[in-house]
Amino acid sequence: MDENKPNRLWILKHAPAKLGDCAGNEEAREEMRQWALLTEAGKPAKPLLLAGPTGVGKTAAVRALAAEMGWQIIETNASEHRDRESLERLFGGSGSSLTLFGSKRLIVVDEVDAGLDKGGLPAISALVSAATQPVLLVANDAWNPKIASLRAYCKIVEFKPVNATTVRKALDKIAVAEGGRDATLVSEISLSCNGDLRSAVNDLQAGFTGERERKHNVFRVVGKIFKTESYGEALKAADDSEVDFDLLYRWLEENVPAEYEKPGEIAAAYDWLARGDVFRSRIMKRQAWKLYKYVRALVVAGVAVAKEKRYSKFSRYAFPTIMKKLSAARESRAALKSAAKKTGAKMHCEASCARDALSTIGWIEGATTYFGLTETEAGLFAPAGKLAGKKAKNEKNEGKRQKRGNQG
């Protein structure tokens, strides 16, 4: 497709050309780079299983790695080629032969946790175990029981949601390249995308925040569950939606008091949520995913039938508080990591040592400029008393300037 066409997707037009251009997940990208260098040097290395939520940059990192290493990509989606015959026909001898010009072939299979059937999984396992060319598998959930036998052949590399600060920087760069920048729009999208960089870029190109539609969908589903008195209708509302179940759980947990008024109803709803949480814990500990059907029934239907009768009032549902706190903590960790890298480069030591040193010596005047830290990064190390004193001093100086201006 012509890159100059106005309707070209920005997610493709501004795709990273090398791993260093990717946004977020630095540790995962460094693991990929080291694995590629070992493979290029002829040293045996396990195939990688890249795992993480949709839109966090797994596919972009794979393509950037191939471009950086000069490897030819042979890729497929497991949903399209899900049986043994089609997989063997697609890959053929690619897993063991170089290209015509002597470079390696990178074999990539996407959605291995979603698309493969019983015949396709052994075919992928055989491909992975026998391939002499580099192999990368991509999944949303590395611990899906469907691919338990495949995990033994691979090294898992975890991709996490991209923090809002990193998303904002990536969107800023794209917006400038496209000839404009709406700071408010960029900020809104960065905060609302929940770490999904791909949807953030698409929202930026569309010129609106996708959070409006996402929130509308969540409100609609939560409202249906709270308003219905039918076990079946509650489950259908959850099953027909595109809302992640863990997110739906948090929305229900947060908004029970907003919908139900009687203490007994509120207690019963939280009791059902607690019972469902017990089964969620059992699933993770035992990897017994057959218990998921009980979680759905307990959480969704249990909350729906906890009330004595349907409320006809309008309820203002709130975004889960715990999600806001987790997002803030994620941004704080990202800022801490960035600050440690900058100080480590100046102090000629590892980032961990630089962080410990700064935590010990506190903050000194002029250090922000010397290390090139942002105000947020500097605040992580500055003692609270010094920050308060500096703020008071700035306010005092500002007051003096305003007074002189009024007198003039």
Q: What would you say this structure looks like, in words?
A:
The protein has 408 residues and is an alpha/beta fold. The protein folds into four domains: 10-158, P-loop containing nucleotide triphosphate hydrolases (Rossmann fold, 3-Layer(aba) Sandwich), CATH 3.40.50; 164-208; 214-304; 328-407, no CATH class. The protein is built from 19 helices and five strands. A five-stranded parallel β-sheet has the order 2-3-4-1-5, covered by helices on one side. α5 (120-130) links the parallel β3 (105-110) and β4 (135-139). The longest helix has 27 residues, at 321-347.
Write the layout of secondary structure elements.
Elements: H1 10-13, H2 26-40, E1 48-51, H3 58-69, E2 72-77, H4 84-91, E3 105-110, H5 120-130, E4 135-139, H6 148-151, E5 155-158, H7 164-177, H8 183-192, H9 197-206, H10 211-227, H11 231-240, H12 245-259, H13 263-286, H14 292-304, H15 321-347, H16 351-361, H17 367-371, H18 375-381, H19 384-407
Parallel strand pairs: 1-4, 1-5, 2-3, 3-4
Helix pairs in contact: 4-5, 7-8, 7-9, 8-9, 10-11, 10-12, 11-14, 12-13, 13-14, 15-16, 15-18
